[in-house]
Amino acid sequence: MRLEDRKRAVLCAVVEEHIRSAEPVGSEHPVLLEHLGCSSATIRSAMAALEDEGLLTHPHTSAGRVPTDYGYRVYVDMVLAGPLPASERQAIRRDVGHVAGDATDLGDQAAHILSLVTRYASVVAPAGLRQQTFDSLHLLAQGPGRALAVITTSAGTLQGRLIDLPPGVAAADLEQLSRVITQRLHGMRIADLTQERLEQVIGEASRDQQLVDAVKAWLRRDLARGSRPRFHVEGARHLLNEPEFSRPEAATQVLSALEEHTVLAQALAAVPEQGVWIAIGSENRLAELRACSVVAAPYGVGHDAGGTVAIVGPTRMRYRRAVAAVQYVADRLTEALRRSA
User: Fold this and answer.
1) CA end-to-end span of the chain
2) What is the pLDDT of residue 70?
């Protein structure tokens, strides 16, 4: 939406003062008068026009105005993210780089530092198994009737699992089946390995059909288990310091959403493969988060290994700082993963 210069300046001033104070902003507010350099009557006229256009709203109990979700959206689209102070950039780089060798610690530490920097709830979603591609299968004999099965993917090795085998399976049978399945599934997306797809691709990969059936059954179970979303969530308590969540029912709804990883997975499903993504209030696809704004960015090495970094806060969010922090942490995570690859 294009706004004339005066309305643009008034909208930015109102939004930024409301973000700072959490109070409705009137046309005679000293900050507006000083910042805009015009009369309160001129400001009042511009605010009325912005209200008519749906960017501001007028609370019944106040003479001032507050931004609507649409007003925040126009504001966010108009302004660029400001850079983080050098001291905070250094702190993020130090703390994220410190745990670069361990993917679990990396996510925990990134979520922790992002929450500290922004004072909002932070979420780090590691790369989901379904986003990765199949690399290889290894079946290793572990005595009569048992084998250790290990899958490797484009993002690393899954934990090995013991599986039951039909009687009479030799180590040579396991080696041959490992080799054939690796050749047939290599490079395929995990998300595409449905039961039907496994039947088509693996087929009769060994002369021992019982062995093939046992391995296919294990693959279906293990891939489904590994595809469940996993999230690192930090700083949800910060939301309780925001006036918007002072009522127990409002706080409970948001905190419950942050605890439900399936809800978070749905909320972040629209994050693109590049750039910062922002959902403001009613733009969120889930009702549980429509009192919030979500700022998110992807991270990772390669197209299929990406995770997501996000913060969740009130719609009265410090957007410049939030966007800069999320993008900076996403970039640092990508660097850390590239070094450890």
Assistant:
1) 43
2) 95
pLDDT of residue 50: 94
User: Given this model, what pLDDT does residue 337 score?
Assistant: 73
The C-alpha atoms of residue 304 and residue 318 are separated, in whole angstroms, by: 31
Question: What residues are paired with 299 via a beta bridge?
Answer: 307
Cβ proximity of 177 and 215 under 8 Å: yes
CA Rg value for the chain: 26
Residues β-bridged to residue 66: 57
Helix (H) or strand (E) holding 108: helix 103-118
Please tell me the predicted confidence (pLDDT) of residue 267.
85
Contact 11, 50 (CB under 8 A): yes
Span of 110-114, 169-173, 310-314 with lowest mean pLDDT? 169-173
Beta carbons of 99 and 106 less than 8 angstroms apart: yes
Q: Is 139 within 8 Å of 148 (Cβ atoms)?
A: yes
Closest C-alpha among 62, 146, 149, 155 to residue 107: 155
Cα(2)–Cα(74) distance, rounded to whole angstroms?
Answer: 9
**Burial of 149 (C-beta count, 10 Å sphere; 0-12/13-18/19+):** buried
Q: Where are the beta strands (DSSP E) in 114-200?
A: 121-125, 134-141, 146-153, 156-157, 161-164
Cα separations in angstroms, 335 against 185, 231, 245, 340: 29, 20, 35, 9
